[in-house]
Amino acid sequence: MVAGTQVNDLTPSEMHASLARSSALVGDAEGTMHHLDHISQALSGNPALAAQMAEIRELLESEDLGDAAHELKDLVGDAHEEKHHEPEGHGH
Known about the structure:
Elements: H1 12-25, H2 29-42, H3 47-61, H4 65-81
Helix pairs in contact: 1-2, 1-4, 2-3, 3-4
């Protein structure tokens, strides 16, 4: 997250999706995978998000961090849509 940015309704999944994207943008595939794991735990009941995350993992495994970052941008929006379906307590 960027210092000085306040988001009152940020869910843990949105936070991890944003951090995963930031990690991908700086070339940190391991960090990206770490945050994807947190998202998987929180949103495991959503097949559409599971498919997106599988695609992102494939991009990371093939070291295509640019495309992974692009897909993560979409995932941030999807995670926001899930905020009312996410159980509490799935932070880092």
